[in-house]
Amino acid sequence: MSIQLKDSGLLKTQAYIDGQWVAGDNGATFDVHNPATGELLATVASVGAAETKRAIEAAEKAMVAWQALPAKSRSDILERWYNLMLESQEDLAVLMTAEQGKPLFESRGEVGYGASFLKWFAEEGKRVYGDVLPSTADRRSIVIKQPVGVVAAITPWNFPNAMITRKVAPALAVGCAIVLKPAAETPLSALALAELGERAGLPAGLFSVLTSADAPAVGGEMTSNTTVKKVTFTGSTGVGKLLMKQCADTVKRTSMELGGNAPVIVFDDADLDKAVAGALVSKYRNSGQTCICANRILVQDGIYDAFVEKFTAAVNEFRIGNGLDDSTTHGPVITEKAVADIHAKVESAVAEGATVVTGGRVSDKGSHFYEPTVLTNVTDEMRLFKEEIFGPVAPIFKFSSEAEAISMANDTEFGLASYIYTNDLGRVWRVSEGVDYGMVGVNETAISSEVIPFGGVKESGQGREGSKYGLDDYLETKYICMGGL
What we know:
Blueprint: E1 15-17, E2 20-22, E3 29-33, E4 40-45, H1 49-68, H2 71-87, H3 89-100, H4 104-124, E5 131-133, E6 140-147, E7 150-154, H5 162-173, E8 178-181, H6 187-200, E9 207-209, H7 215-224, E10 228-234, H8 237-248, E11 253-257, E12 262-266, H9 272-284, E13 294-300, H10 304-315, H11 336-351, E14 355-358, E15 373-376, H12 383-386, E16 393-399, H13 402-410, E17 417-421, H14 425-434, E18 439-442, E19 461-462, E20 475-482
Parallel strand pairs: 7-8, 7-10, 8-9, 10-11, 12-13, 12-17, 13-16, 15-16, 17-18
Antiparallel strand pairs: 1-2, 3-4, 5-6, 6-20, 11-19, 14-15
């Protein structure tokens, strides 16, 4: 294995179930490759339904003592886990870049972001409050909050560290146990987190990591097992809908962070340089492979040409390559299939009249690389307008009026993130309230942090992650009536 870490103990290749590192029952494995080089990084255990069931049973047993602990005791363990993550930030970043491809500076940032959820919920877990309700003379009405139960989590490859801690931290903070299936493309980051959690003192069974190349087997057990009380998922809308259907038979709680089609709306009174810089970061971060990436850049006609010129000049300065190289600004796309899907969308747009200003083809760097691309003369009839691109392609649309911009922004079944650039205070309020999205960035596209409620509306999902609201999905509200007083 070619991954060089200061702490070699962080490189794990077995699943983590009930505090033990284990192989799959049938000895099955799958390979993990570096998408930038094609190099084999590791061969990892692949588990199925039987192992998933055992992890769920272990979680149920471990949760009995865990939820009985004072919140302060749970907080102390999460705090130690946070500190261990920061101490291992460079190793965790190297692991992430090797298996996912993003540049090392982005990976370092994600590790810090991921650790922040452990820190935040270590504190918020101590602030789960109840109520005493107005009552009659002979009774008292009390409301308390209790952990929802065993949680099953399924996380994506594009943020293989932070999308785990954003779910695990609130679940553990309030007294739940959690069973995790990470993406098959990026299991090493998840296993390293489990190792650090064990070192922090997390009791066996509370957090299991089920590495698997058989997602239907693991997911099927998670959604059908009556011990699991909640399923949380980050990924595509199609898979999210399937999981929700599967959870219906046992009426599980679900929280879903699904696909996006984020607009960046740039009005002619905006600070052009700030708008260009914000749109660039939003569009091309992680080579366009984020759910809140700018999917459609909508620019008012009076500044359209100037915006395209500045935006394209900046894109032409990008350097794609291996994320471990210091000169790289943008890494590979996760799979060759993903590259093919991106290129098909570009070709479809060009066939319908779009103009390629820069890029528009698979890079000569290799089959996992797609050139950062800018398209103009795009319309709302094209696939690029209606579908999530999930790659380094920026279609720049033109609009005339505020009403048209809002209408274009809302013309999608998705509603996760949106962004507005304007210096008109009245317009800020009108457009922020008028767009159907769970999150709105005004003159800013870097909107994510542990303190904000991350989530969408419409087919972009349900529930919120992070912030004080992020505890709600892991708690049940119980009413107690005390009579005969």
